[in-house]
Amino acid sequence: MVRIVPIELDTHFAEGTVNAFLAIGETITLIDTGNPGNESFQQLKTKLHKHNIDLKDIDHIVLTHLHIDHAGGVPLIQEEVDVPIYVHELAKCSLNADIHDFERDMLFFRQFMEECGADPLKHIVKQSYKEEKWQNVSYLKEGDVIPIGGHNFEVEHVPGHSQVDIMLWDPQTGDTFAGDHIIKAFSVNAFIEPPIPGNTAVLSHCYSTVSLLKKSAACH
Ligand SMILES: [Zn+2]
Fold this sequence. Notes:
By secondary structure, the chain is an alpha/beta fold. It has one domain (about 5-220): 4-Layer Sandwich (Metallo-beta-lactamase, Chain A). The protein contains seven helices and ten strands. It has helices at about 40-50, 70, 75-80, 90-95, 100-115, 120-125, 205-220; strands at about 5-10, 15-25, 30, 60, 85-90, 135-140, 145-150, 150-155, 165-170, 175. The longest helix is centred in the middle third of the chain and has 17 residues, at about 100-115. The chain is globular and about 55 Å long. The two termini are about 15 Å apart. The mean pLDDT is about 85. Zinc ion binds near residues 67 and 161. The site of zinc ion (ZN) has 5 residues, from loops.
């Protein structure tokens, strides 16, 4: 029996809050981590403590995708505990990116703006490269099975919102962690991103994830 506990964390984005989830069973899994920065980190720890969970109790963290309101908490968590991180294999490029990759991505956005007839100087927020290396990262792919709270969940690659989105699905119960693949309050944005080298996902793959969602819903 896995107990699933939503951990609601503040964000500065339109949705106001984002949910991480605790799955408590034979093992303890944290799904997503909230925003970067100490404020979100302290909020996460406080909310974990309300369920008598400390960071050191978490066996592993699974990330639904790499957007900062879901994965931004990893560096501060790993400063305190060496907890394993699981994320889709296409995230490897981003996590190993160096300054050359950063500059290539910035060039992509500049060219994209110009092709759209927009002035990149006005519309791109200036960013500078910041090195950030995670430890103890394992990569997941479509069809993998991962224990969440000690119970087996299937990994489904669901590109659309981002290229590395995964859903975690228990075929027996229909329990599904969908990340931002579906959002209750409004339509999900498909983020414009530089293509990941080796990413073969195409639109038909995105459509196929819709049938997976229906399958998941049908279990309830
Ligand atoms: Zn997102």
